[in-house]
Amino acid sequence: MSRKKSTVVVIPCDSYDEEKVYLGLKSGLDELGGFKAIVKPEEKILVKPNLLSAAVPEKAVTTHPSVLRAVFRLLSEAGCNNVKTGDSPGHGSCEGAMKLLGLNDETMYGAKLTPMSESVHIDFPEGMTCKEFDFCKEVVESDAIINVCKMKTHALERITGAVKNVYGFICGLKKAAGHVKFPNDTVFARMLADIHRCTHPRLHIMDGIIAMEGNGPGAGTPTPMNVLLVSTDPVALDTVYCYLINLDPEAVPTNSQGCRMGIGTDIEEEIDIILGGRHITKDELFKTYGNGAFDVGREKPKNTFLMKYSGFMTRIARRPAIDKDKCVKCGICVDHCPVPGKAVEFKNGKTSPPVYDYKKCIRCYCCQEMCPKHAIRPVRGLFRRK
Ligand code: SF4
Ligand code: SF4
């Protein structure tokens, strides 16, 4: 018997014009039955954007406000009037990030901004990799979650999309501890899949109108991809993102582990791609909207056993490096390094940039994500560092 396929709707959209985004998203959602098929009006709904840090929309660090406003408008039209929105950014506050996007309670079609700053401990005995979480209170209190992610690159997981975006459910600085507990791309991806298994977001919407390539998720280059993606399957959605940038979906741990742990599928035959009301192949999709030159890490996940015991593998592995010319010696990277005893530290007070101890470094890239001057990027171990 053939398995039920996962549908991913591709919505062409070449600008953040509010009406264009709204009409595009409306028609895309109609392919899935509209919001009425996904949420009930009386439910408490949490809309979860990607608010990595406070940044203007043009930087492509956050979900664009036009996309969020279209989601709020459509929810309002579906009769949902108990809608909250927020994220737990890695640095700074949710309110600060929303302010730079021009979003507040007056501009969100009745949705209310919520701080996502209070933590609730949850036991999850069914967890395959993680059996407890410290979620933001709003995640636990909601009936339904709508995940509105951003199409970006990610130093640890290659890409950040629908699967990775749920890490913002973990409250504040508790996120750093998660990197120590799940210290490589594969186990970290498995922990993310457990978050999905625990919270079951109902719908995933990806803002890929202007994506981020290169040194993502906070310091990359905005690049037009001119699409929105919508699906109830986070792995299938991220897999279609991979098709668009000609990246092997199995090179992305959140896809491979997400598929193995049953939160979705990255298998081509199990994904229905819909564009303009008709089914298309991944090759047809790439021909029209693909960007094979998209700057993203394309290496497959390393065998973690080999990484641990092979000195050579460890030496050539990617690692964060600081560009001394860009560094302003603020110390934010040091503050955010989750490793006990710190794997990046100032050696002579703040007279020169911090220095890495790669024997301690778990390559979580929290330092790279948080550096406000974009001075940190992943490099190959054998390359000379500045
Ligand atoms: S966060 Fe960036 S700018 Fe600040 S000390 Fe670290 S590398 Fe330098
Ligand atoms: S130095 Fe950076 S990449 Fe290494 S463990 Fe610390 S935060 Fe993570």
Write a structural description:
With 386 residues, the protein is α/β, with parallel strands linked by helices. It folds into 2 domains: 6-289, Rossmann fold (3-Layer(aba) Sandwich); 304-380, Alpha-Beta Plaits. The protein is 28% helix and 22% strand. The protein contains 13 helices and 16 strands. Strands 1, 2, 3, 4, 7, 8, 9, 10, 11 and 12 form a 10-stranded mixed β-sheet that branches. The chain is globular and about 60 Å long. One iron/sulfur cluster is lined by residues 320, 337, 339, 343-344, 356, 361-367.
Quick recap:
With 386 residues, this protein is of the alpha/beta class. The chain has helices at residues 18-30, 65-77, 94-100, 137-141, 174-181, 185-199, 234-244, 253-260, 282-289, 304-309, 311-316, 332-336, 366-370; strands spanning 6-12, 45-49, 83-85, 112-113, 119-123, 132-136, 144-154, 158-160, 203-213, 221-231, 271-275, 278-280, 318-322, 344-345, 355-356, 376-380. The protein has 13 helices and 16 strands.
Bound molecules: iron/sulfur cluster
Shape: globular
Estimate the strand proportion. Answer: 15-25%
Number of domains: 2
Q: What is the CATH C level class of the largest domain, in words?
A: Alpha Beta
Q: Give the number of helices.
A: 13
State the CATH topology of the largest domain: Rossmann fold
